[in-house]
Amino acid sequence: MKKVYCPIKGELSLELYEEIEIYGKIFTGRDAVLPKIATLYQEGRLSEFGIDLAGSVIFHTAVSDAGIGPTSSNKFDIESTIPILSKAGVKLHLGKGALKKDTIDALKENQSYFAITPPTSALFSSKILSQRVVAFSDEGIEALHELEVAGIPAIIAAANGKTVFGYL
Q: What's the distance, Cα to Cα, between the start and end of the chain in Å?
């Protein structure tokens, strides 16, 4: 199993079906916050919020006392941000579900990847070393969080223009 340390420095070389473990600081976001982050990037305003997406990982989830677990990455408000956030420097999007061909192509173009996770909230919660709200605290559990994690398991589901799923 390949270990991926975040933020990712240099090139990341992953293949379909490759099993990985994620270590370091990652961001979380879903429907409420990812469009806001994408807009901030497009407006050149990420630094106003102290957000640096270079080499980052974004886990499509909310953070609550009940734990964390993947949400569907193919929801419009999430999937539509993947190409933009990949261009902004996100190297790995973590979630669940099949993505559209255009999204897979955008991942390839930006040398980014999509990985899927098993829906195991208790396991993921045990892998969190620290957490803090980075931006949009008014969104509650859907705010942009930064987590420090140790060993979140995932499987690469989109790499180099290919996917383990059929296209939507």
A: 29
Q: Which residue segment(s) compose the domain that 102 sits in? A: 2-8+18-162
Q: Which amino acid is at 109?
A: E
**Structural domains of the chain, count:** 1
Q: Would the pLDDT of 57 be above 70?
A: yes
pTM of the model: 0.86
Q: Please determine, for residue 119, whether its predicted confidence score (pLDDT) is greater than 70.
A: no
The pLDDT confidence band at residue 168, using thresholds 50, 70 and 90, is: low
Cα 87 to Cα 90: distance, rounded to the nearest angstrom: 7
Instruction: Identify whether 119 is part of a domain.
Output: yes
Which pLDDT score, from 0 to 100, does residue 85 have? Answer: 98
The length of the chain in residues reads 168
- 101 within some domain: yes
Structure tokens at 66: 């009940």
- Residue 92 sits in a domain of what CATH number? 3.20.130.10
Count of alpha carbons within 13 Å of 57, Cβ hemisphere only?
26
Of 120, 129, 104, 131, nearest to 153 by C-alpha is: 120
Structural tokens at position 161: 């223009």
